[in-house]
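Morning!

As promised:
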Amino acid sequence: MPERAPSRGRPRDIDAGRRILIAARDLLLVDGYAALSIDEVADQAGVAKTTLYRRWPTKDHLIVAVVALMQDDVPILDTGDIRADLTDYLRQVADGLNTMRRAGLPESADDRSAGVVAEIAAAAARHADLGTLIRAVFARRNAMAIGLLASAARRGALRTDLDVAVLFDQLVGPLYYRILVTGEPVDHPYLDLIIDGALRGARPSHAHPA
Amino acid sequence: MPERAPSRGRPRDIDAGRRILIAARDLLLVDGYAALSIDEVADQAGVAKTTLYRRWPTKDHLIVAVVALMQDDVPILDTGDIRADLTDYLRQVADGLNTMRRAGLPESADDRSAGVVAEIAAAAARHADLGTLIRAVFARRNAMAIGLLASAARRGALRTDLDVAVLFDQLVGPLYYRILVTGEPVDHPYLDLIIDGALRGARPSHAHPA
Amino acid sequence: MPERAPSRGRPRDIDAGRRILIAARDLLLVDGYAALSIDEVADQAGVAKTTLYRRWPTKDHLIVAVVALMQDDVPILDTGDIRADLTDYLRQVADGLNTMRRAGLPESADDRSAGVVAEIAAAAARHADLGTLIRAVFARRNAMAIGLLASAARRGALRTDLDVAVLFDQLVGPLYYRILVTGEPVDHPYLDLIIDGALRGARPSHAHPA
Amino acid sequence: MPERAPSRGRPRDIDAGRRILIAARDLLLVDGYAALSIDEVADQAGVAKTTLYRRWPTKDHLIVAVVALMQDDVPILDTGDIRADLTDYLRQVADGLNTMRRAGLPESADDRSAGVVAEIAAAAARHADLGTLIRAVFARRNAMAIGLLASAARRGALRTDLDVAVLFDQLVGPLYYRILVTGEPVDHPYLDLIIDGALRGARPSHAHPA
DNA sequence: GATTAAACGAGACGGTACGTCGGGTCTTATT
DNA sequence: AATAAGACCCGACGTACCGTCTCGTTTAATC
């Protein structure tokens, strides 16, 4: 186990990091990516810029941290009803994406911009470490969803002739594709279609062998 | 229709635009997005910044133009063998994405960055007009691919109980998802898996009713 | 003669430089060296920071330019009365120094600080080019004063057994010494003492041979 | 008188102050003023910044302390030969100044920067207490030199019609002037000229009345 | 051929934000 | 109570790049 290094010097202000993240998230969601400046975040958080930079060496790092924070606490249930569980999961994913997509925009309902989502992707693309980091975040969350599929496959609720990882990509991929590329809406009806498409050929979800 | 104003004054240098695009593309592919500054592009193209801005009002516009240029001439064939045609199409898409993903990087084969792809998405997200523009480019190309699916469906080579647009999303979405989000490789084996997944349940592609 | 290079590109705004210098001088004399920030100067001058930095690459460079500006237009007269002329000259020098010494200070009459004078010296010490520059400014002005002494020497109004350059140092050196080192006042009585000391042994200034 | 509080707690590390001064001096003389940051000094001295600030409240205070340290032990002799004594004294002053002027510079013999000397003056100008302090140091040393002149005057080795304080300024002032302002060298020949200038009109130093 | 209108090269300009540096203060645990 | 360590606040610095502007110069089309 890792030996906890003896605390030397003044310890970091645990609250400062929290306040920074909150300020950044608020600015991001309210005013959008462009409006988010480091100085402003530091101001809002009541923190010196140096304190911020000590934790996140770059604006991109900060942004990604904010997003990672927003990915937490997404509970995934395995009720045995694979279709219901998937619907639930995809709705959570879509909600998160839609929230970020619309960050900083008024009420213009017809907007098709990828908004903050694209900026995050770009940020991760610019820094290798951020890529690894955010992929880890996603991997952790995805692992649970993939587990869902795997368990469904085990009980025969899915066709067994396919890789659950690929199946997962085909469930989630279209959402990102629409958000980031085509700009088409990602709403509940669309999610149902996606699930239909992915599960087709599967036996009925509630199939309990007699 | 817009009356073409009678040509007065010095005509635009037809070659300038071309040289700008080339310079931009080279910088983008060789040195990566970060190295591409407007001043640098103008320099490389041997052109004044004014000349550049007269054609593209924004750096983002220029970038998107470069990418649109790279999307040209993707022939799509309908041989009747839907699996083969899809494979062909997806490989072209994947090749384009992989090229952009690796722009500006040496030979570090293990790179998982989304590279330029993400920057394009971000650029499109920042300007509504660019979004529309690039979506039009994609739509045009996609229309052909969707036509492929539709004709296959008509001849019964696909299950008819699903929307070909959704099916298309499930074919292409995963590619973008991997490129932009998970960073996983998008290679030929993966494409085969995707196609398998999407076509499963379909009758054999060459199914000729006895 | 130097061929005037053909003007290419937008010419520099002659007024901008002037406004910057004025703003800098005002800030310097009113608020003192510490209060003078580049951002503030640019603001006051109604100019972008880049415009300022295009002219003076460093805060130190700007400050020195300000001082050089203040050294202009110091008329030196040669009336034939060497004592009177010297008095006049030294008073001008002393006035300039005393003004800079007191820059940014209220009315605390007992102040002995070298104030801005020392900061200038330090700035010149930090950058070789500034040293050369400011020495050139001083040399130009000093040349006139030394000319004064030389002409007096020629007409026999001074002892001829000494180097006028050294004599000059002994006139001016004490002023700087007091300002920069001992902090003692440099007022009119002191100037008279200095001149007395330097001219002692000389024949009466108005000595016109019969 | 201030009651010395009974010693409680850990006593001050007597060596720390010494190590700090040495580190500061070394940095100053070797790398120049710019390279001297408080953090660096503390590092080099193997001391925490708190320890340093407990002794000197400001970087400027530390610098001045370093210089004061270097001014120690300048013996002044009164041999009765005023010219010889003055020469000796001025050489010591000049040596000190030249050492500081060249601090942090390689072997570029043609350098005319005032170097650290100007920084000291600036430091003293920024803090009233430092001004007083350093003036006291100088005053103590100068008093001896002025005593030299006074005793020479008493024995009639100097003209009596002038203030020895002013005479002193005219001896020392030029050195500082050259160092801080004109950048000209302050070498032995120059010192001789200065002394000649100041003593001219005086009777020969060894003049023993017949 | 003179005029004219727009494109062009060059580079200054306004503006905004970034990330860095250094000074000096504070908070822990340790001595 | 001093120390080591290092986090913290603050303020300014100099840089980078964007997109605009202002010159003087060139290039056709028009008069």
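Residues 7-13, 16, 42, 46-51, 54 of chain B lie near DNA strand E (CB under 10 Å from a C1').

Hope this helps with the figure draft.
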